[in-house]
C-alpha cells in the first residue's frame, strides 16, 4: 500500500467546505474534489449519483455569509510598500489652521456618479432582473476604471493604485447586493434622510445622490448633520449654511443622540452615552422639516404627541414606555410587501411610485458607513430598535420600523460612493474598517499633520530629536501603552497605529474639517445667532448626568479604557467618580 501524502489543515477545511456545498446541491470543482483526491476517494461510496449531461443545473446556494460584506478594494502591494517607507522617513510638520478646510468639489468632482437601477417592471422574472442589474453594474465599474486610466494618462502616467492623496478614485463599494439595498430604499421612501457626520460633511454628502433624489426622483431631501456634539457649534453652523447654498431645496437639521457640553479640542475621555435615547437633540427639528415637505397630505399629529410625551417623561426623569403594538419590523423580504405585483399587466414600464401610500410617510435613512444612520433611527424610535456598532458595515440589509401608525422609518446599510477623497480621510472618518488596514501609518501621518499629537498623547520625543515621523508616533504610543509583540517583545507599532486611528474615529481626537473660508470668517460664525441657538439646544439636551449607555455606544475595550487613577489634561471633561472601588487600579497604565 503506497504511503499517504501529508494532508494539511487548509486542504481539510476545503474538503469540508466542498462536502457542505455538495449537500446543498451545488458541488464546486475545487482542487480537493477531483479524481484521485482524498475527498473523492472517501465520497466514492456515497449514495449521491453523479450528474448526467442532460440533467438541469443544480440550484444556487441559499446561504452566502459574504453576500452583504463590504467590498471596498485597496491599493496594491507596491503602493503599500511606498507608503510604509514614507511613514518611516518623512518628517511631519503641523499644518496651519487653513489645512482643516476642505472643499466638497475636491472630494466629489465632475465625472463621478453612482450606479443607478435599470428600468424594470413587476412582470419581469427575478432572473431577468438580476441579469439586467449585473450588466448595468458591470458597465459602471468598467466606466470608472476607464476614466481612472484616462485621467492617469493625462497627468503623466500616475499610478492608479491610490498612492496619492487625492486625484485618483478612492476605494468605494463594489458589492452589488449593497447597492440593491440602496435602490430599494430610494424607491420605497417618500422623504430621504441623508445622514452626514458633522465632522466630515464634505465626505458624507455625495452631490450625485442629492441631485438624483431631488431632481430625478422628485422626492424630499433632509440633510441631517449627525454627531454635532463632536464639533463646535460654529463649525456646524458654517456647514449648514454651505449645504443650504449648494442644495436649495433640501432642509438641514442638526442632530445628536448624545448631547453634551462642547469641550476643548484635543484628546477627550471616553464618555458613555447616558440617559437613554430620549435625550437626543434634533427629533423635533426633523418633525418640523417633514411637516414643511408633507404639508396636509399626511397626519403627523401622532409623531408630535409622541415627542411631547417623551419630553415630559425626560423632564420627570423617567423613560417613555414603549408602544409595542405600534412596532413592526420588516426584513429583507419586506420590500415587496408594499407593492402588490400584478402579473396580468403590460410589461412596458414599472408601476409609478405612489406618494404617501395608504397615508403613511416613509423616511429612508441613507449615507456613508459609520455616519450614524442606525443611531438616528434608534433616537427617533426611543429604543434600541436596530443594532449599532463603532465598526462600519454593521447594518447589512435595509430594515423598516414604524415610529407611529403614519410614519415609517427605513434603515439602509452604508455605502461608500466613488470619490477622490484621500484614503487617509476615509479611514479617519470611519468609512474604511480600521481592522482591515494593511498600512495604517499614512493615516496616522495625515492626522498628525493637522493635530498636535505628541502633546495631546503626552509622548516622549524620539531619540533622533530631529522631528517626528508617523512611525515614531506609533512607536512612542506603543511604548506608552505597553503594546508588545508576542515573540520578540518589540513595540507593536501596527497595534499602536490602529489604536490612534480608533481614537480619531470615536471622536476622542477631534479632527473636525471646516468649510472653505472658515478661518477668514471665524468670528462671524462664532457670533452667529444659529450658533448660540445650537449651543443652547445641546445644553437643554444634556442633563448633566450619565446613565446606562445604549448598546454599542458606550462599550469599551480593555486595551483602550482609561483608568480612574490617572491624571487629566487641562480642558478635558472629567467624569464623576465611581462609587465602586477598583481593586486593580494600581495595575493600570498611564493616561491615554
From TrEMBL:
> Compositionally biased, Basic residues: which spans?
1-14
Q: Which GO terms describe its molecular function?
A: GTP binding
Biased composition range(s): Acidic residues: 318-343, 556-570
Segments forming domain G: 363-416
Q: Which residues cross the membrane?
A: none
Amino acid composition bias (Basic and acidic residues), ranges on this chain: 15-26
Q: Which UniProt keywords apply?
A: GTP-binding, Nucleotide-binding
Q: Which domain of life is it from?
A: Eukaryota
- Quick one: where's region Disordered? 1-82, 147-168, 256-279, 311-351, 539-592
- The answer, when asked if GTP-binding is one of the entry's keywords, is yes
Keyword Kinase in record = no
**Composition-biased stretches (Low complexity):** 27-38
Tell me the function of this protein: Possible regulatory or functional link with the histocompatibility cluster.
Specify the protein name: Guanine nucleotide-binding protein-like 1
What is the species listed in this Swiss-Prot or TrEMBL entry? Grus japonensis (Japanese crane)
Amino acid at each position: 500500500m503506497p504511503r499517504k501524502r501529508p494532508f494539511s489543515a487548509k486542504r481539510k477545511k476545503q474538503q469540508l467546505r466542498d462536502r457542505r456545498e455538495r449537500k446543498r446541491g451545488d458541488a464546486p470543482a475545487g482542487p480537493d474534489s477531483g479524481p484521485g483526491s482524498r475527498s473523492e476517494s472517501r465520497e466514492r461510496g456515497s449514495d449521491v449519483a453523479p450528474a448526467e449531461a442532460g440533467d438541469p443545473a443544480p440550484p444556487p446556494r441559499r446561504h452566502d455569509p459574504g453576500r452583504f460584506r463590504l467590498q471596498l478594494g485597496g491599493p496594491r502591494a507596491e503602493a503599500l510598500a511606498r507608503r510604509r517607507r514614507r511613514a518611516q522617513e518623512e518628517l511631519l510638520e503641523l499644518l496651519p489652521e487653513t489645512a482643516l478646510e476642505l472643499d466638497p468639489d475636491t472630494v466629489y468632482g465632475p465625472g463621478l456618479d453612482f450606479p443607478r437601477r435599470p428600468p424594470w417592471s413587476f412582470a419581469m422574472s427575478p432572473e431577468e432582473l438580476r441579469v439586467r442589474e449585473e450588466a448595468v453594474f458591470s458597465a459602471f465599474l468598467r466606466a470608472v476604471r476607464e476614466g481612472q486610466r484616462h485621467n492617469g494618462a493625462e497627468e503623466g502616467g500616475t499610478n492608479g493604485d491610490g498612492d496619492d492623496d487625492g486625484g485618483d478614485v478612492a476605494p468605494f463599494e463594489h458589492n452589488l447586493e449593497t447597492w440593491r439595498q440602496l435602490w430599494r430604499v430610494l424607491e420605497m421612501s417618500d422623504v430621504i434622510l441623508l445622514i452626514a457626520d458633522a465632522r466630515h460633511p464634505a465626505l458624507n454628502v455625495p452631490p450625485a445622490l442629492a441631485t438624483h433624489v431631488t431632481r430625478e426622483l422628485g422626492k424630499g431631501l433632509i440633510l441631517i448633520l449627525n454627531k454635532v456634539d463632536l464639533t463646535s457649534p460654529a463649525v456646524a453652523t458654517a456647514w449648514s449654511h454651505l449645504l443650504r447654498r449648494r442644495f436649495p431645496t433640501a432642509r438641514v437639521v442638526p442632530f445628536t443622540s448624545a448631547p453634551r457640553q462642547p469641550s476643548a479640542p484635543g484628546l477627550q475621555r471616553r464618555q458613555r452615552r447616558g440617559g437613554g435615547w430620549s435625550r437626543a437633540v434634533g427629533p423635533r427639528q426633523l418633525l418640523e422639516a417633514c411637516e414643511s415637505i408633507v404639508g396636509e397630505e399626511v397626519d403627523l399629529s401622532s409623531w408630535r404627541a409622541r415627542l411631547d410625551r417623551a419630553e415630559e417623561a425626560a423632564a420627570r426623569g423617567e423613560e417613555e414606555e414603549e408602544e409595542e403594538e405600534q412596532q413592526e419590523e420588516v426584513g429583507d423580504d419586506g420590500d415587496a410587501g408594499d407593492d402588490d405585483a400584478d402579473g396580468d399587466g403590460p410589461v412596458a414600464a414599472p408601476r409609478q411610485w405612489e406618494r404617501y401610500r395608504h397615508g403613511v410617510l416613509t423616511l429612508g435613512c441613507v449615507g456613508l458607513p459609520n455616519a450614524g444612520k442606525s443611531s438616528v433611527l434608534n433616537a427617533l424610535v426611543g429604543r434600541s430598535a436596530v443594532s449599532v456598532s463603532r465598526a462600519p458595515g454593521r447594518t447589512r440589509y435595509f430594515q423598516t420600523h414604524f415610529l407611529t401608525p403614519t410614519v415609517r422609518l427605513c434603515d439602509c446599510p452604508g455605502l461608500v460612493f466613488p470619490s477622490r477623497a484621500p484614503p487617509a480621510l476615509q479611514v479617519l472618518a470611519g468609512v474604511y474598517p480600521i481592522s482591515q488596514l494593511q498600512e495604517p501609518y499614512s493615516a496616522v501621518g495625515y492626522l498628525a499633520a493637522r493635530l498636535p499629537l505628541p502633546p495631546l498623547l503626552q509622548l516622549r520625543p524620539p531619540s533622533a530629536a530631529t522631528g517626528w515621523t508617523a512611525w515614531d508616533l506609533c512607536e512612542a504610543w506603543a511604548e506608552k501603552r505597553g503594546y508588545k509583540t508576542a515573540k520578540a517583545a518589540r513595540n507593536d507599532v501596527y497595534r499602536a497605529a490602529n489604536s490612534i486611528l480608533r481614537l480619531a474615529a470615536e471622536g476622542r481626537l477631534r479632527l473636525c474639517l471646516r468649510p472653505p473660508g472658515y478661518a477668514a470668517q471665524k468670528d462671524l460664525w462664532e457670533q452667529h445667532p444659529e450658533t448660540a441657538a445650537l449651543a443652547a439646544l445641546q445644553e437643554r439636551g444634556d442633563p448633566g448626568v450619565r446613565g446606562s449607555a445604549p448598546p454599542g455606544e458606550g462599550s469599551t475595550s480593555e486595551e483602550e479604557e482609561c483608568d480612574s487613577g490617572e491624571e487629566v489634561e487641562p480642558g478635558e471633561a472629567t467624569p464623576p467618580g465611581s462609587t465602586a472601588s477598583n481593586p486593580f487600579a494600581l495595575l493600570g497604565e498611564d493616561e491615554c
